[in-house]
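new request in #modeling-help
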Amino acid sequence: MKMDSVIEKLMRAARNNPPSDRVPYTFEKRIMARLAGTQPVDLSTWLAVQLWRAVVPCFAVMILLGVWINVGNPIAGNDSSLAEITGELSLDHVVQVATVISSD
Amino acid sequence: MESDDRTIIRAVLGGATERFEELVVKYQPRLFAMARRYARREDEVEDIVQEIFLKSYSKLRSYREEAPFEHWIMRLATYTCYDFLRKHKRNREMTITDLSNPEMDWLDRVGGKEETHVDQSAAKMLVDRLMEGLSPDARLVITLLEIEEKSIKEISVLTGWSLPLVKVRAFRARQQMRKMLTRISPNTYL
């Protein structure tokens, strides 16, 4: 108990005597001289931030492409018309085309 | 005030690097006062503050503007001071022969019944000595908790330690201080 009160008194003394906030003359110039010619780039952090920022646009493009494929594009989006197109190419047509090509 | 900081940071990131000086001028008094809590020699204090500014400049892109810049730079400053303590771990054993006369007098007065005139500067010198004998963890947590009177939660944010870890370290730090006081003045406290 006695010890705790001593520690408390010491801490109070430290609180009542805060360290000086005095800054050496032209310290900011020294910092700026050290920084001259460097860019504020932390490559790994910068890359992580850029990738994180790219998430939203990529997601938006993905949704737009999905909508376009399923709704806006009549050929790719309609399975039955695709079947009709391919169905017209019967085996006979293929054989005829192959014969003409080979005869040439 | 905070929007000023953000404007400056955007300008710096946009290429106007000379505007970083405005941030240096604004925050250097606080950072010097903070660094003087952990380092005694003035050249060490200057090195700490310089490192804080160099780090903050190189990591400026990682500042996300979610919290005030002041909080961000103070967290960086706390990490840097902690690194300094770990690199310059002195932790030497202190004995009664290390104490100056005013410090001994202070201990005698505060330990005894007559507590009339307490010499604050002697007490401050004694605190500095005790701090130098503490481990880096203990010194950081005692400074933040007892001297700067920050809450456990604030210390957790500043140091990146979990809340229970801060509590455990604070408890151990007080124990270390008690042990040191007992060692330097056994007659008074035993």
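bot summary: Chain B has ten helices and no strands.
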